């Protein structure tokens, strides 16, 4: 048996291959965000902890998803959605924590969480209960997209954007703008990946551009960009704001 097989990586299968660095990157990011709590002001520590939780929870799921894929060759749908159901609401909490000083209320956070849960539950029904038909895939994909569009709307024109405009911190303004770009570009990778599922527009029964297992490539790459990227944006804001208070004290 080759070494790579022993650690459950098939070097010739890009899908199998991306699970492993995905796992390591999430793990490293979690350690980093957790350790860096010591470098920021007290009021930013919770935001960094949430970033560490997002990447840490993902790391644990990647550990199991990598194994699941390696031993069955199947897409780990349930593990994936359990991961997202924990981490995406945490990202909504991240938005809320950043905007709380600008007046964000808990209802702002709950609306984002509700929209993202709708997005994920519909996506799960779409993938886990598929009968292989295009109708099933498209129906649940569209319902899911309603939730996605709500978050997108909030970040670009709705409540999140308006709160950011009202904020007196340039770092928070810039940070929310960066997160809005993540939601627009980084999150858009997921519905494209979803279209490679059985019955999907880009997959084997549709345009035939991708195999069904390629859905994991899209999701693994998107997760790394979004979970670590989101965390780094928050980290940047926290560092900038903390050095401002240090300068004021000195
Ligand atoms: C850390 C995980 C993140 C940021 C996951 C985000 C997931 C999405 C934005 C998923 C969106 C979907 C649609 C908009 C339609 C098709 C079904 C989904 C669930 C893939």
Describe the structure.
- The protein is mainly α and 250 residues long.
- The protein has one domain: Rhopdopsin 7-helix transmembrane proteins (Up-down Bundle), CATH 1.20.1070.
- It has helices at residues 3-6, 14-35, 42-72, 77-99, 106-128, 134-156, 159-166, 170-186, 189-194, 215-249.
- Helix 2 (14-35) runs antiparallel to helix 3 (42-72) and helix 5 (106-128) packs antiparallel against helix 6 (134-156).
- The radius of gyration is 19 Å and the shape is globular.
- Bound molecules: retinal.
- Retinal binds next to helix 4, helix 5, helix 6, helix 9 and helix 10.
Q: Which cofactor or ligand species appear?
A: retinal
Report the CATH superfamily. Answer: Rhodopsin 7-helix transmembrane proteins
Rg value: 19 Å
Number of strands: 0
Task: Give the proportion of residues in helices.
Answer: over 70%
CATH top level class name: Mainly Alpha
Spatial separation of the terminal alpha carbons = 62 Å
Task: Label the overall shape.
Answer: globular
Sequence-ordered SSE layout with sheet pairings:
Blueprint: H1 3-6, H2 14-35, H3 42-72, H4 77-99, H5 106-128, H6 134-156, H7 159-166, H8 170-186, H9 189-194, H10 215-249
Helix pairs in contact: 2-3, 2-10, 3-4, 3-10, 4-5, 5-6, 6-8, 7-8, 8-10
This protein binds retinal (RET).
């Amino acid at each position: 048996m080759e070494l790579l097989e022993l650690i459950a990586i098939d070097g010739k299968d890009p899908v199998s291959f991306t699970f492993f660095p995905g796992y390591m990157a999430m793990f490293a990011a979690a350690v980093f965000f957790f350790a860096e709590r010591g470098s920021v002001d007290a009021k930013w520590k919770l935001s960094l902890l949430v970033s560490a939780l997002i990447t840490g929870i993902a790391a644990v799921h990647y550990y199991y998803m990598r194994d699941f894929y390696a031993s069955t060759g199947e897409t780990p749908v349930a593990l994936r959605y359990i991961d997202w159901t924990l981490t995406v609401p945490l990202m909504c909490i991240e938005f809320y924590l950043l905007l709380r000083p600008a007046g964000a209320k808990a209802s702002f956070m709950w609306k984002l969480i509700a929209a993202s849960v709708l997005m994920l539950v519909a996506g799960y029904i779409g993938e886990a209960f598929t009968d292989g038909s295009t109708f099933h895939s498209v129906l649940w994909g569209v319902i899911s997209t309603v939730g996605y569009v709500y978050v997108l709307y909030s970040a670009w024109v709705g409540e999140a954007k308006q709160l950011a405009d009202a904020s007196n911190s340039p770092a928070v303004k810039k940070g929310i703008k960066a997160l809005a770009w993540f939601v627009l570009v980084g999150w858009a990778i997921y519905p494209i990946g979803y279209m490679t599922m059985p019955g999907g527009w880009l997959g084997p029964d549709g345009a035939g551009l991708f195999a069904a297992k390629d859905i994991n490539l899209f999701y693994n790459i998107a997760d790394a960009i979004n979970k670590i990227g989101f965390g780094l944006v928050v980290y940047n804001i926290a560092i900038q704001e903390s050095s401002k208070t240090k300068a004021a004290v000195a």
